[in-house]
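DM from R.C. (forwarded with permission)

"hey, sorry to bug you on a friday — could you get me a structure for this? deadline for the figure draft is monday and I only need the backbone to look sensible"
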Amino acid sequence: RKSEIAFSPLKKWLFTGEKVFDLDGIYNSQNDRVWATSREEADRKGGFREKTKYPKKVMVWLGTCADGLRTPVKLENGTMDAEVYINEVLPIALECGDNDKMLGDD
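My reply, with the result:
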């Protein structure tokens, strides 16, 4: 119950996670079949897939605490460094509970 959590040490915990999404998507060739009589015909029917050498990525950060889920933070360049963390993620993370927190790192 939420009333029991109100005075619990769990109220001080912030659990976080990040996920990087490749904008090209994930391709599994074992899930894709093309029926053709030759390799050339298979290529014409889409039997090959070009892959971007440096695909664009987006990272999403999300945290949760006793107060509930935090607002997701979308990082367009796909990476997080100290400056991005301090400017974009930390203000959202500090919205949880009181000032006496523990971080449950992933």
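R.C.: lifesaver. The longest helix spans residues 82-93.
me: no worries. DSSP finds three helices and five strands in the chain.
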